[in-house]
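#structure-requests
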Amino acid sequence: MIIGIPKEIKREEKRVAITPEGVSALVLHEHRVLIESGAGLGSGMTDDAYQKAGAEVMDSVDDLWSEAELVLKVKEPLEAEYGRMREGQILFTYLHLAASRELTEQMLNRKVVGIAYETIQLFDNTLPLLAPMSEVAGRLSIQVGAWCLESKNGGAGILLSGVSGVPPAKVVIIGAGIVGINACHLAVGIGADVVIMDINPARLRYIQDIFRGSVTTVMSNRANIEEQIVNADLVITSVLIPGARAPELLSTDLIRRMGPGSAIVDVAIDQGGCCETSRPTTHDDPIYVWEEVVHYCVGNMPSAVPRTSTYALTNSTLHYLLEISDKGFRRAMKDNRALRKGLNVIDGKVIHEGVAEAFDLPCEKMRF
């Protein structure tokens, strides 16, 4: 199979879809790998390293897209890339279609085969290709949240850990998935006063056990969210419904009741966000202040640490990429239930229920 890796064009996106070591594995399986010149530089990976691994470095991104049977990316296609997609071409990336009607319609109209990293799902309902970036985003959320609380950024001037004789900041984490638990690890390590909320009591019991009482666990419901949020210094929202739009859990009225200089890091912004006041931001302009509450809503948070993120992503995607490339996507999906869950659109039809529900579109059933 001919696999193309273009340079990411999303603003401040420095990750690349595969490492040179990943390219070596594809070439060993006798696949042809095309990579756009400079695609890996943001992650510290040179064209020479990719060439030594067996990739063909291409100067023309249009030629790369036109030759590639499978296009491997990190982020969803942007408007400049729509015209490069063609019927039957496989696009394997984080798609987040439920957050963009425009992209969904473009992929349907062009009859692209869209396989989304974020909806590949194992039998235990875990999301193996979302997990590595969720780990990164969860840990980063505390790092950037602490920065948001600095007075120069509009924050209340609070140190998360506190100091002798001064209490630590209160951190409320909504959602106890991979993002939430990684945020919890870092916040507890810093010494913050941490509350984590979820609708799953078994998950809360697990967190109570592993943190040995150093975290307060609270059931997530409207009353409890209101009680915890109005007293929080930093809120991390990380609720995910695979393939669907994130639920809006924090209303405008509730956020207005938060303390002046408090902060929200909405990790779910790439799926629409969990706050009514959230709007996407970028790494070079990551925050805004609404009613004295600092908002951080960067949709590609892991790009802040692109080298770590690229290696973590390749570790998780390579197995599935090899299966698609070796067998063809139809045979691969027939053999692998988890991979079938990743199929979002094909032949101009929506296959994933979450995407269909987001835009009130019919959802087709595929048989392989």
